[in-house]
Specification:
Number of helices: 12
Largest sheet: 5 strands, parallel
Mean pLDDT: 88
Structural class: alpha/beta
């Protein structure tokens, strides 16, 4: 259940606007709209009506004449009958998806992100070389220790060599950066006709980007790879905002589906810290055949903005 925070003037103003557009007084709509707006301020992308149906109404909403929220079925019926509440796929200020009430913008972020992730996860995009070469590269970059234990770094590198989407997660010291360095070495040693391979390294904050840059440089120095391959490694990492082309005082970026990034592979570190709107905009800006590698630890810091991808 969401713990209620005091409603802000913005929450109440938004609810009042929804009620005005609805055309008449509707306490159930007002309460739902105010709380949906408040949820976003608390980092949630939607309001789960089921979690608060028939519970006590917070003090700020008592003037509506409600002491407890309506039952779930009755509340959903009232909202579906409102002209400002749509179903998934409709263009309305509020979207009711089963028992989840979204502001349209955040429903769209979640929907578009999920569609793109499923599409990329399902797509096979092998490195442009034969299987024997991939096997040879894997063996050279991730030598086994004959212990019989599966080398998960080698598994991750193989997945990255075959799929458009690769997610690598693990705690501190599990070798995530070494794995990425190996993936980069494999990618750069593949038989790619275009030798100007474009690789972008990014993270949600400047500090995380600096750590990634330093870690990749250190891991590269430990790899047994030819000098001309080592020279091709990306030598800098940046923030996701800078990668996408931040536009001051605008929620948009320079790079989007109409102006995609010029990249063959994008690697994002500290992915647990990336909020939903930013990740949705990042994946929207990727070229059709760009590989995406998400790196991070699910038990580390979560995003400070809305959503936890």
């Amino acid at each position: 259940m969401i713990s209620f925070q005091p409603l802000t003037a913005l929450d109440l103003r938004f609810a009042r606007l929804m009620e005005k557009l609805h055309g008449n007084s509707c306490p159930e709509l007002f309460a739902a709209a105010a709380l949906a707006g408040s949820c976003v301020q608390q980092g949630h992308i939607c309001l789960d009506l089921e979690s608060i149906a028939e519970t006590t109404v917070p003090d700020e909403l008592r003037e509506l004449g409600l002491t407890v929220f309506p039952g779930l079925a009755h509340w959903c019926t009232i909202l579906r009958d409102s002209s400002v509440v749509g179903t998934p796929g409709e263009l309305e200020p509020l979207i009711l998806d089963s028992t989840l009430l979204y502001l349209y913008r955040y429903w769209k972020y979640e929907h578009d992100f999920a569609v793109q992730m499923r599409k990329r996860a399902a797509k096979t995009l092998p490195f442009p070389n034969n299987k024997n070469n991939v096997r040879s590269l894997l063996t050279g970059l991730f030598p086994g220790d004959n212990s019989g234990v599966t080398n998960l770094q080698k598994v991750a590198a193989f997945v990255a060599s075959q799929k458009q989407l690769c997610i690598i997660t693990g705690g501190p010291g599990t070798g995530k950066t070494s794995t990425i360095a190996g993936i980069l070495a494999m990618f750069l040693q593949s038989d790619i006709p275009d030798q100007n391979t474009r690789i972008a390294l990014a993270a949600p904050t400047g500090k995380a980007a600096a750590r990634l840059q330093e870690a990749i440089a250190g891991a590269k120095s430990r790899l047994a790879i030819p000098y001309h391959i080592a020279e091709k490694f990306p030598d800098s990492a940046t923030t996701i905002h800078r990668l996408l082309g931040y536009i001051p005082h605008s929620p948009r970026f320079r790079h989007c589906s109409e102006n995609p990034l010029q990249a063959d592979m994008v690697i994002i570190d500290e992915s647990s810290m990336v909020d939903l709107p930013l990740m949705a905009k990042l994946i929207d800006a990727l070229p059709e055949k760009c590989r995406l590698v998400l790196l991070g630890d699910k038990d580390q810091l979560a995003s400070v903005e809305v959503g936890a991808i």
